[in-house]
Amino acid sequence: MTAALALLLVSDHVEGSIHVLTVPDGTETDRLTGRHLSEHAGFLALPDGRVACVDDRRGELLVLDPFGDELVESAIPVAVPAEHLACDPSGRWAAVTTGLGENGEPWSDLLTVVDLTTEDAARVRTRVGEPGVTVLGNGDPLVVLRHREPGTLAAHRFADLLAAPPGCPAVTPHTHLPLPDDGHGDAQDPSSGHVFAATGDGVHRARREGDTLVPEQTIPWDSPARGWYLRLDPRRRALWSTLRGGPADPLRWPEWSNQAWHHDLETNRTTLTELGPGLVFRLALAQHHTAFTRIHPDGDELILLDAADTARRVPLPAMDGAPRRGGTPWEGVQRRAVAASPGSDWVAVTRGGHGEAHIFDARTGSEAARLKLDTPLRHGGHAMLRTQTDGAEGDPVGR
Q1: Domain containing 84: what range?
Q2: Band of the pLDDT at 61, cuts 50, 70, 90?
C-alpha cells in the first residue's frame, strides 16, 4: 500500500516565510513570503488537511490548503498580537485571543470570532490578559476563555459574539467557573464536550451542559512538578503534557526536571515518564509515537515514546547560539520545533539558526533526511506535519 503523502509546513516567523515541503524528500511545493506567523498561537489543524494560523504582522487569520491547488484559501482580518487560536470540532467556528506581543505587560482585551465558511468576523472586548481559548461544539458553539488573576473559565455564546455591533463592544460571559490564578494550557475533548485547563494543582475539567459549564474532579499531576502545556491526543482519547520541576530561577534551567505526563481519558490512568534535565516544552503526536525535544548544554536529543511509554533517545546536532549555562533558555537564543502527524511515522525537528529540518522515522529512530531551507529559522521557527486524512483536527486547539 502506498503511504499517504505527508507535508511539512515550516514557518520562519522572524524572517516572514512559510514553506511547504514533501516528507521525507524535502521537495518544496509551495511558499509564502512576507507572512509572520504568530508562533505562540501556532498552527491549527482543520479538516481535509487544511491548516489555520495568524499572520501577526498583517493581522490576518490565514486558512491554508497545502494539498490543494492554491495554498491560501482565505485571509480574514483579526486582532493581534495573537495569543491563542482554536476552533470548534467541525472546523467552522474559530476564535483568536490577543496577548502582550512585544510589550512588557498585557494590554489588549480584544477577542476575534470568525465563521470560516462565510468569512464573517467580529471583534469584542473581554479582559486584558493572555487568555487561552477553546470552542465547544454540540449545538450552538461556546467560546470558553481561560483567564488568569483572577482565574476563570468564562463561556460566551459564539452566536452572540459574532452578532456584536461594530466598535469592539465589551462583553460579559454567559457563565463562568472559578480557576486558580496560574492557569496555562488548554485542551478539549470533542467526543465528550469536556474542556481542560492546566494549573499548578492539576488539570481542571468541566463539561458542557447546554449553555453552561459543570465542573468535574480535577486530574492531579501525580508529581511535585506541573505542566504548562496541554494537548489532546486524538489517536486514543488521552491528554499529554510536559511536567517541569526544579528551581524557579530561569538561569538554572539546565537543572529543570522534565516528565512526560500521559492521562488516558477512558481509564483515568496517568503515566509519568522521565525525560531528563533541561528545556522540554511542546510535543508532537506521530502515528504510534509521541515526540519531545530536550535541549541541554551537555547535548540535545529527540525522545520518542511508544504506545507503552517506553523512551527511545536520539542525539541531535548542536545549535550555534543554543541556550547556555548562566543565561535564560528564552531570550536571544536558538531553539527547536518538533512536528508529527497522527497519520504518519515521520517526525520533523528544526535546528534553529541553521535553517535545517531533520526528518526521523519514529519506528527506528533513524534520520531519513536533513532538509536545508534558505531561511535561518531563528528561534527554531514553527512546524506542522500533516497528511490529508490524519485526523489531527480531532485536537481543535492551535499548537
Answers
A1: 6-394
A2: very high
- Per-residue pLDDT, averaged over 333-350, amounts to 98
Q: In CATH, what number is assigned to the domain containing residue 220?
A: 2.130.10.10
Torsion angle, alpha carbons of 323, 325, 327, 328, to 10:
60
Average pLDDT over residues 16-22: 98
In a domain, 1, yes or no: no
**Residue 1, pLDDT above cutoff 50:** no
The answer to whether residue 122 is domain-embedded is yes
Would you call 112 helix, strand, or coil by DSSP?
strand
Closest CA to 133 of 121, 147, 144: 144
- DSSP code for 37: B
- Residue 251's SS3 state is helix
Structurally, the chain folds into a number of domains equal to 1
What is the pTM assigned to this prediction?
0.96
Whether 399 is covered by a domain: the verdict is no
In a domain, 244, yes or no: yes
Backbone angles phi, psi at 223, to 5 degrees: -160, 150
